[in-house]
Amino acid sequence: MSHLTLKPKIKFKFRLDLNSISSFQSMSVNRVKTLPLMYGNKEVRYKDLFKITGTDSLNIVIKSSNEMMDNVGKNFIRGNLSVHGNVGHCCGSEMKGGKITIFGNALNRVASGISGGILRVNGNCGDYLCGKSNHKNEGINDGLVIITGNAGDYAIQRMRRGIVIVKGNVGKNCCTEIISGTVIITGQLGKNFANKIKRGTFILKESKFTKNYTKSNVCEYNFMPFLVKHLNQLSQDKILSLKSFQRFNSHKTASNLSELFLIR
Amino acid sequence: MNLKLQGGKVYDPINNVYGKRMDVYINDGKIIKKNKIKGKINKIIDCSDKIIMPGAIDMHTHIGGGKVNIARMMLEELHHDHNDSCDSSAIIAPTTIKTGIKYIQMGYTSCFEPALLPINARQAHSEMADIPFVDKGGYALLGNDDFFLDLVKKKASQSLINDYVAFILNASQCIGIKVVNPGGINAFKFNQRALDVDEKSNYYDITPRTIIKILTKAIYDLGIPHPLHVHCSNLGVAGNYLSTIETIKAAESLPIHLTHIQFQSYGNNGDRNFSSAAPEISHYLNKTKNLTCDVGQIMFGQTVTMSGDSMSQHKNHHHAHPDKWMCMDIECDAGCGVVPFRYSDKSFVNGLQWAIGLEVFLLAKDPWKVFLTTDHPNGGPFTSYPHLIKLLMDRSFRNDIFEKLPKSVQEHSILKSLKREFTLKEICIMTRSAPAKILGLKNKGSLGDNCDADITIYDQNKKDIEDFFANPSHVIKDGKIVVKNGKIVNYIWGKTQTVKPEYDAGIEKILGKFFDKYHTMKLDNFKISDDEMTNVIGSEIKVNECIHKRK
Amino acid sequence: MKSDNKRYITCPFCSLHCDDIQVEVNNNKFKIVSENIKDCTSKIEYFNIKKTSNLTAISKYKKINFNTAINAARKMISRSEDITLVNHGTDVNGVRSLLNFAASHNCVVDHVNSKYLYRNLGIIQRKGYMATSLTETRNRSDVVILFGNNILKKSPRLIDKVILPKHSLCTNLKSRKLLLVGDFDAQSVKIAKKNKHHIENFKIDLNDIPEILTKLMSDDKLSKNLEGIRKIIKKSKYLVASWITSDFDKCNDPDYVISSISDFILSMNQTSRAACMPIAGSLADATSSQTMSWITGFPSRVKFNGKSFFHDRSICDSQEIIRNRNTDLAIHISTVNHNKVELNDKIKNIFIGHINSTFNIKPDIFIPVGNPGIDHRGIMFRTDNVVSVLLDKIREIELLSTQDVMNMLSEVDN
Question: Which helix (H) or strand (E) element contains residue B458?
Answer without folding.
Answer: strand B455-459
